Amino acid sequence: MKTLEAFPYSNILVLGLAKSGTAAAKVLLKNNKYVRINDGKAIQSNDQIEELKEMGAEVIIGSHPFSVLDDIQIVVKNPGIPYDNPIVAEAEKRNIPVITEIEIAGLLTKGPIIGITGSNGKTTTTTLITEMLKCSQKPVKVAGNIGKVATDIAQTTDEDETMVIELSSFQLQGIKNFKPNIAVLLNIYEAHLDYHKTFENYKAAKFNIFKSQTKNDYLVYNADDPTIIEAIHNADSIKIPFSRKKQLREGVWIDEQYVYFKNERVMSRKDIVLVGEHNLENILAAIAAAKLNGATNSGIYQVLTTFQGVKHRLQFVDTINNRTFYNDSKATNILATQKALGAFKNSIILLAGGLDRGNEFHDLLPFLKKVKGMVVFGQTADKLAGIAKEAQIPIVVKTENVQMAVKEAYEISAPADTILLSPACASWDQYKTFEERGDMFIQAVHTLR
To answer: Residue ranges of the Mur ligase central domain (predicted)?
Structure first.
């Protein structure tokens, strides 16, 4: 069993269970720490809670009394719990540090860590890096916001294995000393303001990814993003830029014919099968991180000539009567939908809508020129219908959900059209996750057959 040698706290509050809280609690208990668990939504008969009690945890569920902080030295917070939560706010008043489970994962990991963050493209880039290393016969494991709890994966990672971690702003806001050996910053765009309250807070959380890096670490960054360029001046790490707009003799770049790592020609551009200009940025970032970690050009080539995208991120689903269907359910903000719309040259039927977070969607207007029809659903249906009217889109249909939207989209489409689910909204008004929403889309497409 791996031990938490550099974790100097004895009494810990785990606030919020779910996957990350449960994983953190188990590791702490195995390391003979006193662990108190507080979760307002859990139920007494939960098998998971019974297991934690048997391991020695004190469990307080159903409410959040301030007394849960008594004698506590540090709080391990579920990333989804906001910082204005009363217990978190009280902990900060008492000068009790608040961290997320990623901090513990970093202490457990003895091998190299590649951390990836950005407003969009994290999952695609994380997957590309992982596959490039695998195809280069480099031992690697993947974790983090991609769906696998980093603390769980860290316990099984050997010193010669690289851990590739997708990192959200929620996770990064709660780190103190965690640092990846290679940090990847993809892009920064206003997002999750319901959680972070201001864009400045959101940026600060994202930029935590390099705050503890040293001169022996690498920071792979988007040289086309002015917000990132301004932020990285204070980074101590070795800076490796990537760009799809300009030549970079010290970074990764692309011209009309080839992809380059510094002055080395890596592969032909025409052999890349992943669609979308925005995905070129993800590809360049992945090449930089993978090459710095020892990936071979042949391994990179093998991935980029076969990889067509991760599930729910511009995922090709099917072609039916010369209509092509793409599932981009992971597009939970406007920027992601902008990038998806820019990925196609032919006419588009756009399916969009979901949780209303106060956005007015005017930033979509310049990207709707190829959209000949929109099918809208969810809480934001009326707002998006208004934007479609403003963009003079000839056909706009309002429907109840994604499943019905697929049928409506097919009926208003013509041969050679792309039917694209790219909601520009979170899914929680109708679906538990964006994955569930995407699966409903896929199922409805297959039903058309």
So the answer is: 116-290
Q: Is 354 annotated as a binding residue?
A: no
| Annotated binding-site residue? 119 | yes
End position of a domain, from candidates 43, 75, 99: 99
Do 335 and 427 lie in one domain? The reply is: yes
Predicted local distance difference test score (pLDDT) of residue 34: 97
More confident residue, 63 or 77: 77
82 shares its domain with 138: no
pLDDT at 44: 60
Q: Are residues 263 and 131 in the same domain?
A: yes
Q: Judge whether 201 is annotated as a binding position.
A: no
pLDDT tens digits, 279-332: 899 999 999 999 999 999 999 999 999 998 888 888 889 999 999 999 999 999
**Do 19 and 85 lie in a common domain?**
yes
User: Are residue 112 and residue 238 in the same domain, yes or no?
Assistant: yes
**Residue 154 pLDDT:** 95
CATH number at residue 296: 3.40.1190.10
Query: Is position 216 annotated in a ligand binding site?
Result: no
**Statement: the pTM of the whole predicted model exceeds 0.85:** no
> Is position 123 annotated in a ligand binding site?
yes
Q: What is the percent of the chain with per-residue pLDDT over 90, rounded to a whole number?
A: 84
pLDDT digits (tens, 9 = 90+) for 98-140: 999 999 999 999 999 999 999 988 999 999 999 999 999 999 9
**Given this model, what pLDDT does residue 335 score?**
87
Instruction: Give yes or no: residues 294 and 374 share one domain.
Output: no
Three state DSSP letters for the chain:
CCCCCCCCCCEEEEECCHHHHHHHHHHHHHCCCEEEEEECCCCCCCHHHHHHHHCCCEEEECCCCHHHHCCCCEEEECCCCCCCCHHHHHHHHCCCCEECHHHHHHHHCCCCEEEEECCCCHHHHHHHHHHHHHHCCCCEEEEECCCCCHHHHHCCCCCCCEEEEECCHHHHCCCCCCCCCEEEECCCCCCCHHHHCCHHHHHHHHHHHHCCCCCCCEEEEECCCHHHHHHHHHCCCEEEEEECCCCCCCCEEECCCEEEECCEEEEEHHHCCCCCHHHHHHHHHHHHHHHHCCCCHHHHHHHHCCCCCCCCCCEEEEEECCEEEEECCCCCCHHHHHHHHCCCCCCEEEEEECCCCCCCCHHHHHHCCCEEEEEEECCCHHHHHHHHHHCCCCEEEECCCHHHHHHHHHHHCCCCCEEEECCCCCCCCCCCCHHHHHHHHHHHHHHHC
Is 120 part of any known ligand binding site? yes
Mean pLDDT of 371-383: 97
